[in-house]
UniProtKB/TrEMBL annotation:
It comes from Borborobacter arsenicus. Residues 52-75, 115-141 are annotated as: Disordered. It comes from the Bacteria. Residues 115-125 have a biased composition (Basic and acidic residues). InterPro entries: DUF6481. This is Uncharacterized protein. It holds the Pfam family DUF6481.
Amino acid sequence: MALYREQDIFERRNAANAAKQALLERFKARPAEDDPQVMARKAERQAILEAREKRNAEKERLRQEKLAREAKERAEREAIAEAARIAAEEAAAAEAKAKEAEEMDRISRLLADEAERKAKRDARYAARKARNGRMPPPRPA
């Protein structure tokens, strides 16, 4: 079993100074900006960034093309739907006009038939009156 021993202030100060010295040495050991390895890493990172920017630009271009293509297709579908709607409205209008003409024709035939029946009835009435010997007064037209 290990015994725990508290450090006194001198030991703590020496440990802190040693840590600071190690950090300073590590910083001084770092290569300079003009070191070939540092320059190579920097160039590699720059190449990676440029490649990423190219990929992103290509993705954006493809996305814009896709949006434009979808908008064009949607506009075509809407134009086709609009043309179909207009054709359906025209067909419905033509059908309504044909029905109206048919109804008017039917009404005119009914009126003609009724006029014909009235004329026959008036003729029968006049013939009956003529047979009985008396004539009705003439009706004004």
